[in-house]
Amino acid sequence: MKRLFHILLIFCIAFCTHCKNRDELNVMDKEGLGLYWHHEANVERGRHLLMSFINVNASTDKADYKFEYQIQGRVIDVRLVEKISKGKCQVFPGPNGDQCQSWGNIYIPETALSEGTYKFRLQTGKAIVTADLIVGHDQYELKVPANSYFTNNIPVVYAIPRNIVFGSVLYKGDANEPLARALIDDLMKAGLKPAVIPTHPYSYLAENNQTHLSNTFWEPDNHLINLVFSWEGDFKKVVEICKKHFELSKKQIGIGLWNSDYMEQITADPNGGVNAFTR
């Protein structure tokens, strides 16, 4: 009889703990979740979708949410598996005061998704919301039905096409324009070709910077030339050319170029130096 009592006691403790854990994960029906998302790239993960699930309403308590996802066929299951308490929010001046928001991220590789429609199921605790994720050639659309748990105010995000090198070269005064043009010519001699990309609100490339060789001027005598190239070669070659022309110009030009595959970058600041980040 005593053994049976011990077994029942252990079962009750485990059951209550399980219920408590499930209750802690019910963040959608308790606080509501909103979505921030975009397409991005970096050296560690390559090209991917970043999805951040954020509390709609701020709270005085901060938590980190740990989400996991699984793709099976045309179904994407996203599930909150852990809520990690971070204590009370820091207090800042302003309307939020001692309140802050909690969130958690997932990263879905571009290569894990093919064109077409997926069922996108988000679950936290007992609450489940099913949406449609439509994957296009260079865009992603998430259609969330009306519900009281989960909202998405960014219905469509766009991916910069692959194999694009983009950015700008900056100079002061008309006398330094030949220095900027020499850099552009050298890049083209190396095999970079002017590119035309679809006009979309990309995360890292503003719409007014998407036209190759378009110019921007601001007082007193500053000039910027936008660059949008197609390039399938090693980005280190681009870095070498930029470094060479930055030194040849005696730091009279500024350079900022990125690639769309891994967001490798080269920046050269006339008031500073050269910074390069490559694989």
Question: TL;DR of this structure?
Answer:
The protein is an alpha+beta fold and 279 residues long. The protein has helices spanning 2-24, 27-31, 177-189, 235-248, and strands spanning 33-42, 46-55, 61-72, 75-88, 103-109, 116-124, 127-135, 139-143, 150-152, 156-158, 164-172, 193-194, 215-218, 222-230, 253-259, 265-268, 274-277. Strands 11, 12, 13, 14, 15, 16 and 17 form a seven-stranded antiparallel sheet that branches. The chain has a six-stranded mixed sheet with strand order 3-4-6-7-8-10.
The poorly predicted ranges are 4-20
Mean pLDDT: 91
Oligomeric form: single chain
Please identify the structural class as seen in this structure.
Answer: alpha+beta
Indicate the proportion of strand residues: 35-45%
**Number of separate strands:** 17
Largest sheet: 7 strands, antiparallel
Shape: elongated
Radius of gyration of CA atoms, rounded to a whole number: 25 Å
Termini separation: 66 Å
| N-to-C order of helices and strands | HHEEEEEEEEEEEHEEEHEEE
Number of helices: 4
* Helicity range: 10-25%
